[in-house]
Amino acid sequence: MAASSSQLKKIESRIESLSETLSKGSGRKPLSKIQLNNMDSSRVSKGHGAFGGARPARTAESAGVRRVSSGRKSGATFATKSPVKAVGASSAARKSLGNKSEAKAPGSGGLSSNRRLSLNDFEIGKVLGKGKLGKVYCVRHKQSGYVTALKVMSKKELVDLKLEKNFRREIEIQSNLMHPKISRLYGFFADEQNVYLILEYSMYGELYHHLKSHRRFNDTVASFYIYQVASALEYLHSNNIIHRDIKPENILLSTDNNIKLSDFGWSVRVAPDAASKRLTICGTLDYLPPEMIESSEHDFSVDIWSLGILCYELLVGKPPFEEIDKNSTYKRIAKVDLKIPSFVSSDASDLIYKLLQKNPKKRLPLNEIMNHPWITNNMPYWPTEK
Ligand SMILES: Nc1ncnc2c1ncn2[C@@H]1O[C@H](COP(=O)(O)OP(=O)(O)OP(=O)(O)O)[C@@H](O)[C@H]1O
Fold first, then answer.
1. Same domain for 215 and 356
2. Is 245 among the catalytic positions?
3. How many structural domains is the chain composed of?
4. Residue after which a domain boundary falls, among 168, 201, 234
5. What is the residue range of 249's domain?
6. Fewest CB atoms less than 10 Å from the CB: which of 157, 215, 258, 372?
7. Interface pTM (ipTM) of the complex?
8. CA dist., res. 131 & res. 133, Å (int)
9. Do 193 and 219 have their domain in common?
């Protein structure tokens, strides 16, 4: 595993430029004011699903978030069932995670109607959290009664931070996704100052906070989450999308510990041709794969690497290559300097080793991850619907 001195030199100079790129953003062009001002929800609502078919006007998921009580419970390893009556959603959460019926549209006339939306269409509730560009609120759509999350982003900040490209990606990709383990983007609109994303409400917030409050999860809990993320990734990859920012902060929890993969700001749609490779460095430091650090091309397997990091972090409580300074982290990633604590079960260790392979081609494919003994042996203990 030890790298030669010339390899190390190469990595060091790479790290310098990488640190610069990550702190500056990767040269994204500013979007003109006119483009931002022209944004409205009709682009989303008129858009046909990239994966064949128009988006339904209302989903079972959205119906399931009606009449939500405002209190957010947290703390339980498996959060107790919410007061929300989920219509059709999450019933097949455990063993048939890909069940499309969860995302079927039971009716019409919901949030994604062609009528332009504005802030006046919503009752604003509590702040759910704060992002880089603004706050996220729990809101109720007055006409339908649907409770959703409303992400408010300042146009000025978007331009100043050169994040318009990420924002466009987030909208273009997420609005066409329909999977029970992926957070829905119902639409968006803009006014003079802000753009607003209407998102599926995940009442239990980020998986990251749950992990921090528990320090680490046991095999049953961690495998339940990993299986769900793998299921979401299987859907994304089969639709030629690489997420590129898998981490506990981007995994939200809804009822019954159903995960909702979110934050598609770094995701990318690639040509169906398997040879298509990307070069952009993106994602989050601890989750970067060796090929990004070494500036090689990357493909779908970056998400498999990140799934390996996630698996480790859920079981150990911190990512595997974490160091005080980022250069040391980069070096450890480049060398795949992996040390798994002895309290991690042998099945889990086996899976982590198979995911954190330096050679992207050697990383375990998603279907094999979902059938790995660590998953199948823990599956009977996953929570069931009450
Ligand atoms: N759909 C949602 N349901 C419930 N809570 C949410 C939802 N979306 C975001 N939140 C909460 O709001 C916080 C901020 O979210 P936001 O996506 O703006 O932050 P972020 O991760 O920094 O994203 P960005 O990088 O786009 O700024 C999250 O940490 C989460 O707790």
1. yes
2. yes
3. 2
4. 201
5. 206-381
6. 215
7. 0.96
8. 5
9. no
